[in-house]
Specification:
Blueprint (H helix, E strand, L loop, with lengths): L22 H5 L1 H21 L6 H14 L6 E3 L1 H12 L1 E4 L2 E5 L4 E6 L4 H4 L7 E5 L2 E2 L18 E8 L2 E8 L1 E4 L5 E4 L4 E5 L7 H14 L4 E5 L8 H9 L7 E6 L7 E4 L11 E5 L6 H11 L4 E4 L7 E7 L5 E10 L9 E6 L5 E3 L7 E3 L5 E3 L8 E2 L6 H9 L2 H12 L12 H13 L7 H15 L3 H25 L1 H29 L1 H11 L1 H7 L2
Parallel strand pairs: 11-12, 12-15, 15-16, 16-23
Antiparallel strand pairs: 1-18, 2-9, 3-4, 4-5, 5-6, 5-7, 7-8, 10-11, 13-14, 13-18, 17-18, 19-20, 21-22
Helix pairs in contact: 6-7, 7-8, 10-14, 12-13
């Protein structure tokens, strides 16, 4: 099964333990034991008798992943490296070079060096392609190459990398790296505070608490909480962040499961910071899971105005279970529901289409719920904002553009070809957009739509049946028209693509820290949030 949308979704985790004495397990005990015995004997016979040498580890890895893929993308097996990656994500601390890195077969690509961390101090930049770590060539390394960059604090590692076609070397002194849940907070104007919450790790609520208090001390009388692109994380952190704005004892989320002990209700437990300060929450299609718990509950309680575009739509809760040899499995154990009673899960993994892909809940099947003040809200498709700024059109083509890495590569080339004296006045032009479209074509960007796949299969069938001469011209005309439509789809999303390009380019010059300052001046969502907050009557109108 292939999932086109490849975002690293981080899910709410509940501390829990499953015992084999559970009622559900007892009921199916014989069937489970039977299937395990069948699989064990098959696995033994296969490895002992197959004509060629087999790798038991690879076979088992394929078997496990294929089994879990039939459920949902969040129920997954985690090897020792995955477990360590999850630990880093939840704690926000690790020892390494201080950079986001993408793994390819023959290289490691620096996606984003963190300002003033080892990779940055050693002169590495986004787009640098590491081809050798120490004496190890990446193309010859069979294990996860990113692990070569990790090591003890103050230890050094020499890397060989390519930049704009030239091979260079650098020595990086590893250090402890802290990944902040709140990478930025500041004043937008003399009365409006802005907090960016990028993930829900174990420091999320503490860092948000600190940011809120600091901004209030600076004179903030209203707050913008930015959850755009936040994929989620720890459930208890989401509850604690809601608790900053609503009083103790308020229902935030309910979980429901076939296993009785997973049916739980979660209330705010602590003293609040400010129940009155006007609040706008920003969301987009990358806001998922815990982000949706925060935005959805604050919306249901009429405690905040939600601005942006529809969130991702993940209403499933996972629980990690320890396995042997340092491995784990994350299992979807329940669905979560916001205070109004809605589950915002968008994809139905248990009723798939004829291609085996999860079906999106149709709008006519959404159910209506009411907020505390009686406003209408709906389930079935993520959190819909109170002020909708629109989403991209023809998202499948946009996903293909993003997944091709060509936006990233274009930004790299732009950085080395252009000097920017004042980043706050930086703006891409129509000519830049035309150049990007030419760049896509020059780099053989291709994307096959579902319509093209159906037509191709029909054409292949016509050849087998000897009918291709009759439909060849019509087929070529349709394919040509579809190509034109795809080009139009990219043009229709001009503003969104320019936003993605701008974000990537600005980071090259002023790091992520500078990007947030740029946002405060130019970002439409922040401008709209500020506009809503500046007028008390406008703000209250959204909540009635």
């Amino acid at each position: 099964m292939k999932y086109i949308f490849k975002k690293n979704i981080i899910i709410p985790v509940l501390a829990c333990t499953i015992f084999f004495t559970g009622a559900a397990f007892k009921k199916d005990f014989f069937e489970i034991a039977k299937q395990i015995e069948i699989f064990t004997t098959l696995f033994k016979e296969l490895n002992m008798n197959y004509v060629d040498e087999t790798n038991p580890g690879d076979l088992m890895d394929t078997a496990i992943k294929s089994m879990l893929a039939d459920l949902d993308p969040y129920t997954r097996f985690m090897n020792e490296q995955d477990v360590e990656a999850a630990r880093i994500n939840n704690t926000g601390d690790y020892t390494g070079i201080g950079a986001r890195v993408r793994t390819f077969k023959d290289k490691l690509v620096i996606i984003e060096p963190y300002k003033n961390y080892p990779a940055d101090k050693a002169g590495l930049k986004a787009g640098d392609e590491i081809i050798k770590v120490g004496s190890v060539l990446i193309e010859n390394h069979k294990d996860d190459s990113v692990n070569l960059l990790k090591g003890a604090p103050d230890s050094s590692v020499e890397v060989t990398f390519k930049r704009q076609g030239k091979t260079q070397t650098a020595t990086i002194k590893r250090a402890e790296v802290e990944i902040k849940a709140v990478p930025h907070f500041s004043m937008v104007d003399d009365k409006t505070g802005y907090i960016v919450l990028s993930k829900f790790n174990r420091k999320a609520s503490a860092e948000t608490n600190y940011a809120l208090r600091d901004l209030k001390a600076q004179g903030a009388e209203r707050i913008i909480l930015d959850l755009r692109g936040n994929p989620g994380g720890l459930l208890n952190e989401a509850i604690n962040i809601v608790n900053l704005f609503v009083p103790k004892g308020q229902l935030v989320v309910t979980t429901k499961s076939k296993v009785k002990k997973y049916n739980k209700t979660y209330y705010t437990q602590k003293k609040t910071i400010d129940t009155k300060i006007p609040l706008v929450v920003l969301i987009d299609g990358g806001s998922a899971s815990a982000s949706e718990i925060v935005s959805g509950s604050l919306q249901d309680l009429d405690r905040a105005v939600v601005v942006g575009s529809r969130s991702f739509g993940k209403g499933l809760v996972q629980c990690p279970k320890l396995l042997t040899y340092g491995t784990q499995v994350k299992i979807t154990i329940s669905r979560y529901y916001t205070p109004s009673g809605r589950c915002i899960q968008a994809l139905d993994y248990w009723n798939r289409d004829d291609k085996g892909e999860a079906v999106r809940v149709k709008q006519e099947n959404y159910n209506e719920f009411k907020t505390k003040n009686g406003r209408k809200v709906f389930d079935g498709g993520g959190i819909f904002p109170d002020e909708n700024l629109g989403a991209s059109k023809n998202s499948e083509i946009l996903k293909a553009v993003v997944n091709s890495n060509l936006i990233f590569d274009y930004a790299t080339n732009y950085y080395y070809k252009n000097k920017v004296s004042n980043i706050n006045s930086f703006k891409l032009s129509d000519k830049d957009f035309s150049n990007f479209k030419s760049y896509l074509e020059a780099n053989n960007f291709s994307y096959e739509t579902n319509t093209e796949r159906v037509l191709r299969k029909a054409q292949e069938a016509s050849v087998l049946e000897g009918l291709d001469d009759n439909i060849k011209n019509d087929y070529n005309t349709l394919i040509s028209n579809l190509k034109h439509s795809k080009n139009n789809a990219i043009t229709e999303n001009k503003s969104y693509i320019l936003e993605l390009l701008t974000e990537e380019i600005v980071k090259r010059y002023v790091y992520r820290e500078g990007l947030y300052d740029y946002y405060k001046i130019h970002n439409p969502a922040i401008k709209k949030a500020s506009e809503i907050l500046k007028s008390q009557s406008t703000y209250l109108k959204y909540l009635k």
